Amino acid sequence: MSRLLRRQPAPSAPMDSRVRTDVVATGLKDVPACCEVVGAHLSDVIEQTGEAAESIVEQMIKVDGLAEQTAADVARLAGTLGRTESELGQATSSNDQLVDRLVRYFLYRDEQIRGLVDEMRGLKQHVAQIEEVSRATNILALNAMIEAMRAGDAGEGFAVVADEVRKLADRSAKAAHGIGSSIADLTGRLDTVLSDDSSFEKDTTSAAVESADTAMTRRLTGIADAQRALSQMVSGVLHDTMEALRDVEQSAGALTAETTGAVGHVQFQDITRQLLEHVSDAVGQVKQATEDVIGYAEGSVPAETVRERAISVDDLRARHVMSRQRVTHGDHGGGAAVADDTPIIELF
Amino acid sequence: MTTVMLVDDSATMLMSLKSILTKAGYTVETAGHGKEAMDKLAKGVKPNLIISDVNMPQMDGITFVREARKAPGMRFTPMLMLTTESEQTKRNEAKTAGATGWLVKPVAPDQLLGVIKQVVPGA
Description:
The complex is a heterodimer.
Chain A: H1 3-6, H2 21-28, H3 31-151, H4 156-195, H5 207-211, H6 215-265, H7 267-298, H8 303-308, H9 313-318, H10 323-331, E1 345-347
Chain B: E1 3-7, H1 11-23, E2 27-31, H2 34-42, E3 49-52, H3 61-68, E4 79-83, H4 88-97, E5 101-104, H5 109-119
Parallel strand pairs in B: 1-2, 1-3, 3-4, 4-5
Helix pairs in contact in B: 2-3, 3-4
């Protein structure tokens, strides 16, 4: 049952067949003023919802701008972190190569020094020869002295001894020459090792370079490991930070989408405004009709005017332009419900 | 850059639609009623699309579309009506006046942007 159809008749009372127009006028006296007040309230609601909706849109636009700014800041920071991560990787790789080169250099130098030590050991043989020559020279000298004492005038034996001494002297000279050459060679190689380390790059065949494990190489490897661990830690932090930034970026994007949707929903105010304007118009018509009836009761408005301007629920329905208005009208007893199957979006 | 002219007597509608379209990358011109929109067209504004309300003071949307079609360079410009009204008779009037389509408020931002891409080539 509709509200209109449910309306109950006036309480039963002894009916007076003569209508008292003064009572009608009194009963309706304040209705126009009430309509005026209701109309003013509706105008207030329209104005306030309009202002509120504008404020909401302004705030949404600000939120949207902040979200976009946040997304831009995050994108810029992510770019910087990405470049930092790449540069860190390059620096780590470069450091690894440098440490590897240093390790190889020290291994190479160790090998060179070991070679020099071997050469130094070779010098001992020459020293032993010189010692031997020295001992033999002493013996010969002693013999020469004895023979000389014996011979007197006969110096044949001394001549033999003298010849042996000469040979020993010759051997001593050769040994001395060998020592000199070895020292010159060692000096030259030491100079080379100390002044030029470029050759070690080319000498990659030595097994010692690959296998040696010295205190220096262990320290260098330790430094390299520590540096690598630090790089991995920083890289991990960068990665986590970038993950967090991606989350913020997604949230900012979602926030932007939500604000766009919210701004779209503000269209409700325009719809509500128009609905209220129609209600306000209807209230105005009720006011006019009431004033007509009061005027008629008071004798200032002719009956014909009252009939002509009487409000009609069918007229009210005819003024509805929205589907929702027509449906609501039909649901509340304003006549048969009008099916509205027109599309929301129609391209001609 | 695609320029959209919005014509509506509701400041809220103009603000919200302008926000949605600007964010989608469109340049937006606004007018509070049909007469103001005609003045802008006369001053050389050349929108690629017009979205107009129907019920407006001074010049309603259907009259505006009819007049705008006569403006230089506007013969083939898409013109959409965006209104709370859903009556078929009004739609027919708009179609006769030269409107390209009819959208009933409220329309979701995604739907609106979809329609724009449909009616404006390359938008």
